[in-house]
Amino acid sequence: xxxxxxxxxxxxxxxxxxxxxxxxxxxxxxxxxxxxxxxxxxxxxxxxxxxxxxxxxxxxxxxxxxxxxxxxxxxxxxxxxxxxxxxxxxxxxxxxxxxxxxxxxxxxxxxxxxxxxxxxxxxxxxxxxxxxxxxxxxxxxxxxxxxxxxxxxxxxxxxxxxxxxxxxxxxxxxxxxxxxxxxxxxxxxxxxxxxxxxxxxxxxxxxxxxxxxxxxxxxxxxxxxxxxxxxxxxxxxxxxxxxxxxxxxxxxxxxxxxxxxxxxxxxxxxxxxxxxxxxxxxxxxxxxxxxxxxxxxxxxxxxxxxxxxxxxxxxxxxxxxxxxxxxxxxxxxxxxxxxxxxxxxxxxxxxxxxxxxxxxxxxxxxxxxxxxxxxxxxx
Length: 379
Fold this sequence. Notes:
Helices cover 31% and strands 7% of the residues. Strands 1-2-3-4 form a four-stranded parallel β-sheet, sandwiched between helices. It has helices spanning 3-6, 33-36, 63-66, 103-110, 127-130, 144-157, 176-182, 191-208, 225-228, 233-242, 244-247, 253-269, 317-331, 364-368; strands at residues 54-61, 167-173, 212-217, 281-286. Residues 4-19 have low confidence and may be disordered. The chain is globular.
């Protein structure tokens, strides 16, 4: 995904594209005042962490988290090279929730002083736009360890971050480039390597970031690309560059889908308690992509291309906003009861609020017994 494009000698910061596609916001959203509050005293336990207690947000990932093409004008495929870091569904902080849904824009409703989200356009090494979004186009799971190290360094060096005491949420979304290489290099991107690469990166975060919760968005089924670009010559040819495996028809769609499912399965192994050995760190997987087998559709039964950037691969601003809603609704659900399917076509469902009976970011432990972690909210 953008591996070839990412190495093209183009000055990305000099590129400008008009943003004329549709978007999706949720005006005037709010929840019960009690669940919007910070904790009365700063939590010492990650399982007692209210949404308003999050001070810092960071992200690791690939071109989807870098925001490639998210703000591109319709039919402007060149603009897929631009990293619209203010729009990605996890860490994008452009606009407001009224105009554009992202995890960041929702969290800003709880804590307007949230720090670290990315804005505008630019590369990972441009602090003014990237901030704590270290995602790099073309990255695979093997690259996450380096990104994690970069993120740790940025946090330690920044004078406005109280590294030891502020609570941090780290968003991770990765895997498209692994599956795009799988047909040609199955041993290099096996499900075991996929799991071990993720484990190594999260362990580095655990060893170096106090007061941290990691939100890992589960793998999605990339065989959907074959349904999106069917009979669409332009998208079909672009995908040959962006994701060669999708174009290798010696590999049946069922095989690609099965490998994605294996990636999903090994991700779940990381929830076996290995990252629950201290009170100030945990990992939670959000699996809402897992059972999606069809792309978003139009009323006439065709893939909804407004969900995608002009390459029919990356998400548009609208696509990011729809995914962000699904992510948030997964985050507020207890572990073990999280939806594994999100309807990306029908947006009639509400943006959920935290449960007043357990107003914390849901973890394995507080999903099992929230009462033992209950602490009072601020007055």
